[in-house]
Write the C-alpha cells for this entry.
Amino acid sequence: MKILMVASFGGHFVQLQRLYKQIKETSDCSNVEFIFAVSEPNVYVDNCVVFEIANVHRESGIKKLLKATREVFGAIKKTRPNIVISTGALPGLLFCIVGKVLGKKVVWVDSMANYQTLSFSGKIAKLFCDVCLTQWEHLAEQDKRLSYWGKVL
C-alpha cells in the first residue's frame, strides 16, 4: 500500500510529521510505502520520497493554481498512492481533489489551529473526502460530515 502525505509549510507540515510518526508507531507498516509532498524545499523524512510542491493560496491567481493542479496530477500519476492524507492548506486540498477524481481514498485532517471553525480548505474538503477530521470535538458535534478521532500531538 502507498500513502501520499501532503502539507503546506510550517504548522501543517509539523502536524503531518507527527501524524506520520503516530501511524508508524501504532500500525503494522511493513507493507506500506510513505510518500510526502510538501511546499517547502529540501525536506527529508526518514528514507521516504519527498516531492516539493507549489505553495499556492487563494490569492495566487488562476494561472498559478492551474499550473499547481497539473503538477499535482503528475505527482499522483507518478506515485500511484492508494490513500492521500493532507493536514492542510490549499496545496493539500488540490491533492485531495485530484486524488478523489482519480479514485483514491482521501483523508483530510484540519489544522489544530482551527478551534472556532473549520478552515476554508477544510470546508471544501468535507464535501468530498472519504474521511474529514477535525482536531476539536465540539466542531465534529456540529457537523455530521466531520469526525473527531483525537488530536495530532
About this structure: The CA atoms of residues 135 and 151 lie 5 Å apart. The domain at 2-148 is CATH 3.40.50.2000 (Rossmann fold).
